[in-house]
């Protein structure tokens, strides 16, 4: 059963986290209700690291436009929704702009993320309003193209000869492509502004591709901006972090569950471990979703959950043999320890809906019937939370 132990104030909690050993990957989860100060605590943690001269090792990712990270602190690597709708595209571009000696590793990690999301292990770079007839005559443009830019533009023209759409596809699984083709990506993306200025294109969009399914003979090409909000959040977070994470760095993530499909919430921490098992960063997550702690345990890293209360007081949560119900009960006081069957049933309902085995109305009706058999308000609140998760899953399906 989960229990609360060791009450700490914010400074004591930060010091406790900083004192953790680095022999294994550590994932600290600050969990609690909205408005108790989790985001503020995460920002204070970043500020403390900057004060210690470790700003270059701090990676801050926010999935809420209302995070508390300092806007003026350029010492911290920041990615967040406050950057607008282009943040997802920029995250992937940043990953593909990695230095030549790192590109193979970054490409492999990006491919792993795409596969986890159900996409093919390829990336398309679409040149908007592509003009193959630019001559690079300085009299025709106020921008003089460098030899590198000329070479990039020439390579793009060669790659697009005979194609009907101006998309440069990168096969992330091809070893030769990882060494040469994907290494072309940093040059192309680094010269994007110049290519736009001289009229080669008006910008570069990211295209994803679904595998061939039994229902469709053609591969499904998906503009990143047309993907679901959950997919955008998941892909941008993992891709951008992959371009920044290094040994002994600190990865701070604010509300990763926002717009995220329930099954990805459950797998979120395991995905971080799979991607960064060699770098072993210290990960600190602020969240109000117990689903993040519902994944399978692994002996390769430690998960350390803390309940945050009003005034940013923290309690360590012991989770031995507690499961999702125990953690939810300890953090929110909503789930008694005997609700394992109910949670399993609700998760199965959502999975059946995602596999098209039952309709949205059938899943919702089953949940309503379960409410009729509840013996306590806490169980009703659990079912209501899973109804919200079902609606997120429905919105994701309607995107495709």
From TrEMBL:
Pfam family, one: AAA_21
First and last residue of the signal peptide: none
Molecular function GO labels: ATP binding; ATP hydrolysis activity
Keywords: ATP-binding, Cell inner membrane, Cell membrane, Membrane, Nucleotide-binding
Domain AAA+ ATPase stretches: 24-310
InterPro entries: AAA+_ATPase, ABC_transporter-like_ATP-bd, ATPase_AAA_core, Bact_Antivir_Def_Nuclease, P-loop_NTPase
The protein, known as: ArgK protein
Organism per entry: Paraburkholderia bryophila
Upper classification of the organism: Bacteria, Pseudomonadati, Pseudomonadota, Betaproteobacteria, Burkholderiales
